[in-house]
Design brief:
698 residues; alpha/beta; polyphosphate kinase like; 4 domains; ten-stranded mixed beta sheet; eight-stranded mixed beta sheet; 27 strands; Polyphosphate kinase; transferase; phosphoprotein; PP_kinase; polyphosphate kinase activity
Length: 698
């Protein structure tokens, strides 16, 4: 199914539609769920990822568009915005229908053929129905609180993305009144996927049922003396962006704590119901949530596909999963002192193919080393459990100067970051929250060590977060260095963030929002100048998103001057490649594989200087102007060659997981042709950088 939406948008524009481009990324993720060469449980996981991505798209992008329309009155006053929302709605409805087609026609039947059964009510045998009835009576019903709607029982508050049921009733209630509609909230403490006892599963397989199916099967039991004539599960998605007036609040952390409670009840943006929901009930819900009919999604299955992730926790069948991967080590644990190693050479880390443990060891060693006098680190995402944060707490308690820049407004990680900020302060660390109005998205850490009577700086700079879990699934680069120029400039960035003074001139680092966009455009224009002089101009960039129009215009101009440009853009890309007279020298591809591509690499040939930068920033206006971001150069020639050999060249060669962007905004899957050998960049890196010995892995 190839939608023609892009062909209708911006026919005469130099840019593709951002929202549709972002939704095209979800189509590429869904293609993984259809790929029969991928193990079945992993295909189910891709379905869940696509559903989660779409949730966030509504919570953030659609919510922001609706809020923009509401800010000046009504949407009707913004015809362009109405047209954008209409295009989004059309594409999202197609995407959702496709998700459930894959689930019902491919993934679930094939899982059943492999002994993993998701059993609906009408598919259960008598023994299974009896067990489900007992489970409902003992575990579910005691926790349910049906609410019959009347003036004393108004429509209840419904939490963002929670499972609920609407029920239509006949007859009169116990007080002789004709209350016709009831709402039942599914308790959040109950599992959404329930495993049946093994003896009830046929042929030695595993059987599951959904909580929604259990409640559906016995919903009549909740309304004695009344007849249930219609019902449906439903879920509402709400605006989940947090907002505080940072110019007004005195304590950002306390203000955000209050906002977190309200996030669950933000403005409604989408309603999901079961496909067989009676029209009068879906309309009743739309009216309650103030939603237009276009934001109704009637689905053929559970309203929350993300919950199916829970199946994977119960199925222990290696044949249905990716083969386990064990990362290699840039420096084997305990092989030598990390600071001694860095005085000899910089260390380049390529996650998840190489272990993140080296970074943990770096901070942990600094926390325990009596020669270390100070540690500074930025935190954007780190998770609820973190060895890195624990090491910083140890260092602070040991009396070292520990400074942590915690980004409290890292979307969906606010609560974890607030908790760590509390713990760090209690341990004696200096905690600050970056710069008002800007998110601190840079990934940098600094260790200051006293050596031979002088202070020496050691730094870690990365493209990804200090999150021990995501480092196993996201591709990212990190650099450990004691290069005096680089490390001292990292310290300047920390001084800038804590003191709010203007940073000194930086000779190595490109810092947003001050210089990053200018430096990127300057480097692009330099390649154009070289090409105009008759020498080869070459740019290769790997990022997650490309939507900044100034940067795109610079790339177009460089293309016209003859610069050969390859862009590896995982997600949204509004640049039109391959357009004669505009971008014929630009190619764009997206890689969707086992790991989430997350590294940001900027390469400029620059007359064989091979300028190579790693960065925390994508090429989006928010990264370049509304965040603190750092791009840092790879100065060591051998490490430059590694970045090219691992981070760029394999991805340009990939013909298994690569999708190529066409000028109209559609993507075509790249496949091996003729006698070409099939090649996957991620598989190649797993084989060359990983360790074959499981006992050496994490």
């Amino acid at each position: 199914m190839k939608p023609d939406l892009h062909a209708e948008v911006n026919k005469n524009s130099a840019f593709l539609d951002r929202e549709l481009s972002q939704l095209m990324f979800n189509r590429r993720v869904l293609a993984q769920a259809e790929n029969k060469s991928i193990p079945l449980l992993e295909r189910l996981r891709y379905l869940c990822i696509a559903s989660s991505n779409l949730d966030e798209f509504f919570e953030v992008r659609v919510a922001s568009l609706l809020a923009a329309g509401a800010a000046d009155g009504s949407l009707a006053a913004h015809p362009a915005l109405v047209a954008t929302l209409s295009r989004i709605s059309n594409e999202c409805h197609l995407l959702v229908a496709h998700q459930y087609e894959i689930l019902n026609n491919e993934v679930l039947p094939e899982l059943a053929a492999n002994g993993v059964h998701l059993v609906r009510h009408n598919e259960r045998n008598e023994a299974q129905r009896a067990w489900v009835k007992e489970y409902f009576d003992n575990e579910v019903r005691p926790l349910l609180t049906p609410i019959g709607l009347d003036p004393a029982h108004p429509f209840p508050q419904v939490v963002n993305k929670s499972l609920n049921f609407i029920v239509s009733l006949t007859g009169k209630d116990a007080f002789g009144r004709g209350t016709a509609i009831a709402i039942v909230k599914a308790p959040r403490v109950l599992p959404r996927v329930i495993r049946l006892p093994d003896h009830l599963s046929k042929n030695g397989g595993i059987s599951f049922c959904l909580l929604s199916s259990v409640i559906h099967a016995h919903i009549s039991d909740l309304f004695a003396g009344r007849e249930v004539i219609g019902y449906s599960q439903f879920r509402v998605t709400r605006d989940s962006d947090l907002w505080v007036d940072e110019d007004e609040v005195k304590n950002l952390r306390q203000a955000l704590k209050g906002e977190l409670l309200g996030r669950q009840f933000g403005a409604s943006v989408r309603l999901e119901v079961a496909m067989n929901c009676p029209p009068e009930l879906s309309q009743f819900l739309l009216d309650q949530f103030g939603l237009h009919q276009s934001r109704l999604y009637a689905v053929n299955g559970p309203v929350n596909l993300v919950r199916l992730n829970e199946i994977m926790d119960h199925v222990d069948n290696p044949a249905l999963r990716f083969t386990p991967f064990f990362p290699g080590f840039a420096q084997k644990p305990g092989s030598q002192d990390i600071f001694s190693a860095l005085r000899k050479n910089d260390i380049l880390l390529h996650h998840p193919f190489q272990s993140f443990q080296t970074v943990i060891d770096f901070i942990r060693s600094a926390a325990l080393d009596p020669a270390v006098v100070a540690i500074k680190q930025t935190i954007y995402r780190t998770g609820m459990n973190s060895d890195l944060m624990e090491a910083l707490i140890v260092a602070a308690r040991a009396g070292k100067e520990v400074t942590v820049i915690v980004e409290l407004k890292a979307r969906f990680d606010e609560e974890a970051n607030i908790n760590w900020a509390d713990k760090l302060e209690q341990a004696g660390a200096q905690v600050v929250y970056g710069v008002v109005g800007l998110k601190t998205h840079a990934k940098v850490a600094l260790v200051i060590r006293r050596e031979e009577g002088k202070l020496r700086y050691y730094a870690h700079l990365g493209t990804g977060n200090y999150h021990p879990t995501t480092t196993k699934f996201y591709t990212d680069f990190g650099l450990l260095t004691c290069h005096a120029g680089l490390a001292q400039e990292v310290n300047e960035v920390f001084i800038h963030l804590t003191s709010l003074t203007k940073p000194h001139r930086l000779n190595h680092l490109w810092l947003a929002p001050f210089a990053l966009q200018n430096e990127i455009i300057k480097a692009i224009r330099n390649e154009a100048r070289i090409a105009r002089a008759g020498r080869p101009g070459r740019i290769i960039v790997k990022i997650n998103a490309l939507v900044d129009e100034s940067v795109i215009r610079a790339l177009y101009a460089a293309s016209k001057d003859g610069v050969k440009i390859d862009l590896i853009v995982r997600g949204a890309c509004t640049l039109k490649p391959g357009v004669p007279g505009l971008s014929e020298n630009i190619k764009v591809r997206s890689i969707i594989g086992r790991f989430l591509e997350h590294s940001r690499i900027y390469y400029f040939r620059n007359d064989l200087a091979h300028d190579t930068y790693l960065a925390s920033a994508d090429w989006m206006s928010r990264n370049l102007f509304r965040r603190i971001e750092v791009a840092f150069p790879i100065l060591d020639k051998a490490l430059k060659r590694r970045v090219l050999a691992e981070g760029l060249n394999p991805y340009l060669k990939d013909n298994m997981n690569a999708w190529e962007l066409e000028p109209d905004g559609h993507y075509q899957r790249r496949k091996a042709r003729g006698k070409q050998t099939s090649f996957s960049a991620q598989q190649h890196l797993m084989e060359t950088l990983g360790t074959p010995n499981a006992h050496l892995g994490e």
